[in-house]
Amino acid sequence: MTKAILHLGYPKTGTTYLQEKIFVQASNGMVVVSPTFENCGINIKSFKRQVSGGQVGADSRRKVLSRPLLLSIEGFVFDALRFVVGNSFCPADFPLALKGLKSLCSDLKPEDIAIVLCIRRQDQLIHSLYAESYTYQFQWVPEFDTFEKYVDAVMNPANSPQDPGYYFDFSRTIAEIRAQFPGSPIHIRSYENLVRNPEAEMTFWSEITGFEFTHIKTHANVRSAAPNTKVADKQGLRVHAVRLKTRYFSDLKLPNFLSRFMKQALSRMNVGEADKIELTDEMRKRLQAHFAPINEQFIRQESLLAPQYLAANVSVELQQIDWVRL
User: Fold this and answer.
1) In the chain, where are the structural domains located?
2) Is 212:205 a contact under the CB 8 Å cutoff?
3) Quick one: which of 148, 110, 142 has its CA closest to 126?
4) How do residues 51-84 score in pLDDT, each as one tens digit?
5) What is the pTM of this model?
6) Mean predicted confidence (pLDDT) in 319-326
7) Structural contact between residues 82 and 133, judged by C-beta atoms closer than 8 angstroms
8) Which of residues 48 and 247 earns the better pLDDT score?
9) pLDDT at 237
10) Phi, psi at 171, each rounded to 5°
11) What 3-state class would DSSP assign to 161?
12) Which of 108, 115, 132, 150 has an alpha carbon 20 to 30 Å from 124's alpha carbon atom?
């Protein structure tokens, strides 16, 4: 029986829907931990600091693993794509966060741990992530204050783990996961399949957890303003409050319920128009030209090595993914 299921994201792959509408359905039989929910008596923010720092304490391990675990906080590991401190891009350490998750599961056998990685075709992923992160992060960083600059940075051929584009190459992400969890099954799912065939995704999550999940219909993507345009959050009081806290009170940790209440209250105090982030045809073609050969190599590699992956209990559903392809 799987004792720990680690849903790692990426962000903008349906994570919020899964966390708020689906995973909570299992909270009577499992420990469920997400950015806004926990049912084991931990402080989510403190727990995230432990994971991000590479070592989870014994008390947290005891609470989190008191029952079978379903953990889903994409920010644990994928803040490397968008993390900003002050006015500078300062990516979180993805391998270190994976070490933290490894320490959390240190008393479990590799086969008792399942990794679920949800991905999305890169041009759509980059567009959505930038729009979501623009208001509170990227607009304050001169090197990324326009979408064009972020796209240029993502496609920099000299990308390193400290650069925003490094983990948009999915093979790098999977290599880091395998390095920390070499004997654990890895399941790769796609955002596109969640949108097109949500019942199949419910079946997958039901099978891996042993809990029967029910698909819940939800509203359409509220950021989509047009086929190639997404809407960032409006400027308002919350923007200034978040910036003030980040700059002067970064260590202040509010209780989860109070943090949610303030977020909702401040979000209603918006002024002005929201910024619109457009993915032009030229940028889309540039992104597709950049990622198509990367994805072709990844697909060939995964297909050629499939028998080895199957021997290691690795599930890769390549045909269901809407790849950027040549």
Assistant:
1) 4-320
2) no
3) 148
4) 989 999 999 999 999 999 999 988 766 776 777 7
5) 0.84
6) 67
7) yes
8) 48
9) 56
10) -65, -35
11) coil
12) 115
Backbone angles phi, psi at 137, to 5 degrees: -125, -70
Place of tokens 């008390």: 59
Q: Which residues pair with 89 in a beta bridge?
A: 84
Helix axes 256-267, 237-248, angle to 10 degrees: 140
Kindly tell me if the per-residue pLDDT of 107 is higher than 90.
Answer: yes
CA-based angle 257:260:261, to the nearest 5? 85
- CATH number for 4-320 (one of 2.60.40, 3.90.1690, 1.20.120, 3.40.50): it is 3.40.50
Angle between helices 122-134 and 147-154 (to 10 degrees): 140
Closest CA to 267 of 246, 238, 290, 242: 238
Classify residue 268 as exposed, middle or buried by CB count within 10 Å of its CB (0-12, 13-18, 19+): exposed
Q: With beta carbons less than 8 A apart as the criterion, state whether 51 and 76 touch.
A: yes
Q: Read off φ and ψ for residue 237, nearest 5 degrees.
A: -60, -35
Q: Is 273 helix (H, G, I), strand (E, B) or coil?
A: strand
**DSSP bridge pairs for 224:** 230
Tens-place pLDDT, residues 200-242: 999 999 999 999 999 998 866 666 766 788 877 766 555 556 6
Measure the CA dihedral 44/170/87/229, to 10°: -100
Residues 68 and 192: their CA atoms lie apart, in Å, by: 28
Structure tokens at 216: 């819940």
pLDDT of 282 above 70? yes
